[in-house]
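Appendix C: a fully annotated inverse folding record. The material below is reproduced so that readers can follow the format used throughout the book. The structure is listed first as tokens, followed by the designed sequence.
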């Protein structure tokens, strides 16, 4: 009987998801090499070809020098679909934002001060769904001495002070030129450390010793050149994964804003240019024209990834249901042995209480455990689920209130 009941709940859950129209968007990060002072008039046509090929909905760039540079890039490189976000002029070069205002409302650019360059906290709201997305853009300390590694760590610690204050379920990304040579470096370990909830994940799960290592030749982003050019960019050929997009647990998990697997691209890197110039032809991933543009525009390759959202487009009563209660994705997820589940109960019309059941099921629909089964007042709640005696696999957390449900998929790895 319990299995049948769960199957009915899943049917209702997936039936509800049919009324959601999937929407996708693309986020791109690009170090544009001391723009605009380094011969921008020569590089602008190349930038334009690259942007037109990728067509990002959000473009975040590093090494922007001034507000005048933002206006120049907007007018000379981008088409009329793009708007420039607020520019904050800090120490050294800075982050800049360009976005399609048909897709997102831009809310704010909050600079996070470090001893070196600012980390930008860029806040967006997706127009179709009202989902909030936070993008942090960073250009961390360059070079590979012990002092440089320690400075990167200090920058990342300041970032984690911000993200660790987020509640679970927050949608956020870290993009930019991180200048990290290998994943064992303290700064990267600080980014992925899971003691607190504000950690980052690598969407492509390519953790390793990236520097000058052919194993990771398909995801390297720097340098596009072997020889010096007049813009004074770095040389040596493609051999470092400096430019990245990292994501919160919520974005890796399904539901809301979600990373689309296999869409993370180091643009122009076909895996055949290890320690070579990106312009060496042929290039199996882009045209000869684009390969040339990548070579002359910057010493970094751009990186982009695609994400999906599932906006509610019909049935007003379901909009009311969503606002009545929220089941937040468990964290960590995947998890080993135990995980935390948080949920909120709102005031339901004129009621001031709700009858709540929170249960865990396996993939066969068998009830594994009842976590909550009682009347609860409106408010925020948290419970720990201990799976120490369970085997590795997929499980479902199902919250039901007054015959309305919410389901989250949980992955147990041992």
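Designed amino acids, in order:
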């Amino acid at each position: 009987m319990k299995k049948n009941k769960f199957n009915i709940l899943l049917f209702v859950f997936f039936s509800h998801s049919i009324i959601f129209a999937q929407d996708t968007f693309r986020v791109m990060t690009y170090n544009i090499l001391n723009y605009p002072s380094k011969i921008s008039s020569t590089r602008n046509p190349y930038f334009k070809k690259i942007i037109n090929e990728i067509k990002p909905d959000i473009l975040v760039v590093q090494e922007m020098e001034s507000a005048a540079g933002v206006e120049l890039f907007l007018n000379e490189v981008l088409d009329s679909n793009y708007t420039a976000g607020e520019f904050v002029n800090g120490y050294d070069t800075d982050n800049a934002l360009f976005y399609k205002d048909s897709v997102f409302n831009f809310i704010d650019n909050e600079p996070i001060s470090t001893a070196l360059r600012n980390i930008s906290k860029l806040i967006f709201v997706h127009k179709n769904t009202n989902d909030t997305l936070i993008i942090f853009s960073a250009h961390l300390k360059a070079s590979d001495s012990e002092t440089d590694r320690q400075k990167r760590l200090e920058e990342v610690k300041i970032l984690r002070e911000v993200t660790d204050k987020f509640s679970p379920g927050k949608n956020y990304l870290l993009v930019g030129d991180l200048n990290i040579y290998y994943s064992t470096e303290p700064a990267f370990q600080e980014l992925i450390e899971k003691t607190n909830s504000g950690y980052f994940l690598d969407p492509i799960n390519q953790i390793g010793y990236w520097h000058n290592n052919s194993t990771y030749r398909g995801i390297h982003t720097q340098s596009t050149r072997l020889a010096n050019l007049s813009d004074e960019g770095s040389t040596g050929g493609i051999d470092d994964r400096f430019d990245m997009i990292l994501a919160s647990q919520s974005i890796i998990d399904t539901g809301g804003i979600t990373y689309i697997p296999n869409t993370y691209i180091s643009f122009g890197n076909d895996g055949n240019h290890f320690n070579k110039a990106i312009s060496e032809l042929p290039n199996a991933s882009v045209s000869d024209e684009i390969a040339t543009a990548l070579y002359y525009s910057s010493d970094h390759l751009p990186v982009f990834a695609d994400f999906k959202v599932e906006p509610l487009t019909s049935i007003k009563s379901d909009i009311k249901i969503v606002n009545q209660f929220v089941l937040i994705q468990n964290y960590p997820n995947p998890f080993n042995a135990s995980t935390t589940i948080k949920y909120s109960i709102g005031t339901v019309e004129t009621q001031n209480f709700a009858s709540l059941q929170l249960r865990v099921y396996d993939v066969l629909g068998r009830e594994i455990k009842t976590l909550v089964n009682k009347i609860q007042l409106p408010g925020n709640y948290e419970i720990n689920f201990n799976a120490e005696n369970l085997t590795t696999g997929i499980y479902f957390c199902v919250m039901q209130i007054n015959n309305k449900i919410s389901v989250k998929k949980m992955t147990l790895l041992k």
